[in-house]
Design goal:
The protein is of the alpha/beta class. It contains 17 helices and 17 strands. The longest helix is centred in the middle third of the chain and has 16 residues.
């Protein structure tokens, strides 16, 4: 059972040192109890108290790290069944399925064509799932081909000797060994322990999956993911949802408190429309890793957009850092445009500015992560805030004295000009899509 704020407070040093960011130890304890702050933020907690609290305040689903470097990802750590209750924590990751009899280089090259930024997030297939077909030598060769490609590797191999040989090739990249089942789990645990990798567990049904996971925990290994893929779509969905509900119920069963793998290449092989539909389902309910035949833009655009919407914390505004962003080679002599720090506004505006080809500087001030009209109505975007930011951050770095403001706050033009001596304030069109023609016309007329 989770500890209450008062229980946590009793174990704190009670110094009210404020080093944790909270004004008092009691305030800190309440935040920890709510899950808003990690207990490790207190620098003066005793080791004994830290161990007690870390266990008691840990989420019912264990957080698992896989991969290395830029391909390191956190799975699990979830605390709620529905996003509106709080927020989801670790976003679904997509894996591309390969087998030794495929042209693996071609499959990866096709998947790697999909790589783009959406609202500051890099969109691409993060993982590669290598399935063993029974030929140990061919499987090892396939693993060699995916090693060093910047993707987290998942090894689908039930044979201990083949798994051991494959791990010798790629264990430095911290892959997932998805190979434990009721018949081989003892051997697979020893292999995973020796290589210090995460172990995937599967079962013929949900009961066998539970029993095998419990047996592995008794052996002292808890770096696990659960392969909830069943014989068909119905079984896969039922198992994946039941596993998540079991570990996040009012009285959680931590035996099922691990991230999940859903392999759509098994339940809907070579069926692209069905895989896209199912992938969208398991982004919502509740795949930590979703394996697909490949990744292309037809798959990526709807799935990555859905994932970003679902895993964005609704309680936190999507913001970009305030500052000056040169676009199209903009320098100190280039015109300055300004808008708010709401991430969607920034990326829409910056995209249109890039499309114009006109060198410019986009100045982003702190508007609380709100849109243009909302921040203006809330007093976050005002003539005072804009002029203050321009004076303090822009004037020392930019020689051009032309400032373009959003068309929807044209009412601020006069006040900003009054507060910015020597600046010419220009009102942009109301819609970002009109910026391309607007800037090109200004450039053609020699106005910038």
């Amino acid at each position: 059972m989770a500890l209450k704020g008062l229980d946590i407070f009793k174990l704190t040093p009670k110094t009210n040192c404020k080093e944790c960011g909270s004004p008092t130890c009691m305030a800190f304890s309440m935040k920890v109890a709510q899950g808003a702050v990690d207990i490790s933020k207190c620098p003066h907690m005793s080791a004994e108290a830290m161990a007690t609290l870390s266990e008691a305040t840990a989420p019912p689903m264990k957080s698992i790290k896989v991969g290395t470097g830029e391909a390191e990802y956190t799975l699990g750590g979830e605390t709620v069944l529905a996003r509106h209750e709080k927020t989801f924590v670790s976003k679904t990751r997509f894996a591309v399925n390969v087998t030794p009899d495929m042209d693996i280089d071609a499959v990866l090259a096709e998947a790697n064509k999909v790589e783009y930024d959406r609202i500051g997030e890099k969109m691409h297939a993060e993982m590669v799932y290598v399935a063993c077909n029974g030929d140990a030598a061919a499987f090892a060769e396939a693993v060699k081909k995916v090693t060093g490609k910047g993707k987290t590797i998942i090894l689908d191999c039930k044979d201990p000797e083949s798994a051991k040989a494959a791990l010798e090739i790629c264990k430095a990249e911290k892959p997932i060994l998805n190979g434990a089942n009721a018949s081989n789990y003892e051997a697979m645990v020893e292999i995973a322990k020796a290589a210090e990798v995460v172990l995937g567990v599967s079962g013929a049904d949900i009961n066998e999956l539970y029993d095998t996971t419990a047996a592995i925990e008794k052996l002292g290994y808890k770096e696990l993911v659960l392969d909830t893929t069943g014989a068909n779509v119905k079984d896969t969905f039922a198992t994946t949802v039941q596993v998540r509900r079991a570990c996040l119920a009012k009285d959680p069963d931590r035996t099922f408190g691990y991230p999940s793998i859903v392999n759509l290449s098994k339940v809907a092989p070579n069926d692209e429309p069905m895989q896209i539909a199912l992938a969208s389902v398991f982004v919502l309910k509740y795949g930590s890793i979703v394996v697909m035949d490949t990744m292309n833009y037809a798959r990526a655009l709807p799935l990555f957009g859905l994932r970003q919407n679902v895993f964005t914390d609704p309680q936190k505004p999507m913001k970009v850092e305030p500052g000056i962003y040169p676009i199209n080679g903009g320098d100190e002599n280039s015109v300055v445009l300004t808008t708010v720090d709401f991430a969607l506004t920034y990326f829409v505006v910056s995209g249109e500015l890039e499309r114009s080809g006109v060198p410019c500087n986009l100045a982003i001030s702190d508007a609380g992560g709100l849109s243009v009209l909302t921040s203006w109505a809330a007093g976050k975007l005002s003539s005072t805030s804009v002029s203050k930011f321009i004076k303090e951050e822009v004037e020392p770095k930019i020689k051009c004295r032309k400032l373009i403001i959003p068309g929807k706050v044209a009412v601020l033009k006069g006040d900003i000009e009054a507060k910015l001596e020597g600046w010419e304030v220009i009102v942009a069109p109301n819609e970002a899509v009109q910026l391309v023609k607007f800037l090109k016309d200004m450039q053609a007329n020699g106005e910038i």
